[in-house]
Amino acid sequence: MGIVSSGFTGRRGGGKDLPPGQYLTHEFPVLSAGPTPHILTDHWEFTVTTESGEKYKWDWAALMALPSEEITKDIHCVTRWSKLQTTWKGVSLDTLLADVETGADFAMAHSYGGYTTNVPLDDLLDGQSWIAYEYDGEPLDPEHGGPARLLVPHLYFWKSAKWVRGLVLSDTEDLGFWETAGYHEYGDPWKEQRYAGD
Amino acid sequence: MWQVATVADVRRETETARTIVLDVPDWPGHLAGQHLDVRLTAEDGYRASRSYSIASAWSVSSSNTIELTVEQVPGGEVSPYLVEVLKAGDPLEIRGPVGGWFVWKPEQEGPVQLIGGGSGVVPLRAMLRAHADAGTTPVRLLYSVRRPESVIYVSDLKDLAASDDVDVRLVYTREAPAGEPRVGRIDADLIEQYVFKPEDGATTYVCGPTPFVETVADLLVAAGHDPARVRTERFG
């Protein structure tokens, strides 16, 4: 153990649902690298591009026509706040990728506004990720990533790309926006993989 | 990873904010705008960490001293300790620097537009200091505060504003000092008047509470600024 901060007691009360180094919040803080893009659902499109260059596209109506799921998950931001039992509605990536022919191991999520983040494809499948368009029973606010964001709640929340517009699948792992700016390539909150090398 | 710094000095900035000067024996250096993590440990081993923007610039000739400015968050877990309890001579665990996006480098081309709300001025102050050391491009700071007593770095900003290529404009949202007729938030007119034009090719850094950053970034985009040249950092 390192030094003791004399007179510090702390707030505690996190419990077992909090990964190491996280604190509980009941608010919903915002973290974005630039201005919030305002994308109309009329103009929204989601594209999956495979490693062979084949493209699969959904517009808003096509997304709405897919079976949706109600999702209740804890979310963990690398800036140390966690929010428990958040509720979302969205389409599972299992559904979106069901007919996509790929042998790729990696995905790069791309967003309106230019943001990118890399996630292994396995982490997007088997009920682990969604394209979410409702939060807490309401359409997703632009500042929280609306009209639709990627939701990958088992990784730090920067992986849950706001304003998502597509996935590019690849055999090789490239790094996304924060991952090239010093953050961890994978970002498991339970292993506290915040920064590159953790 | 984590290293132990020593508090060399503490300086009251406002009623709720304090600058902490740290001696860091093995500081690797940092870019203006980066932050670091601070970790507090209670006697029973319980720990809490938070990130804070670095307020000082660093160059190879700097001593191993860095400054943080911390605004006390009401009901916060770590900031009240840093603002009210920590004292000169105390050890403090830190890790960093962190963050490679909200940074300004002296070799970067084009003018620099800084827009800060409240303690969002902290990383911008590091950029101003770095600019004072090595910058040659014009810099403007638009700094929104509630009232005159809320201004962090009062004397420092006066010194910096004396330079020909630095322009500092304060905006008061609740109460202005004598002689300043304008009271109110940053709006489209103010952006038009005091911010570099879209064609000037400036890189703009906006830092502050989320509603402030959302509003300012939207105003910039509406005024024709390229979103790709607007970098934001939000808290709260």
TrEMBL record, chain A:
It comes from the Bacteria. Pfam families: Oxidored_molyb. Residues 34-178 form the Oxidoreductase molybdopterin-binding domain. InterPro entries: OxRdtase_Mopterin-bd_dom, OxRdtase_Mopterin-bd_sf. Residues 1-20 are annotated as: Disordered. This is Sulfite oxidase-like oxidoreductase. SUPFAM superfamilies: Oxidoreductase molybdopterin-binding domain.
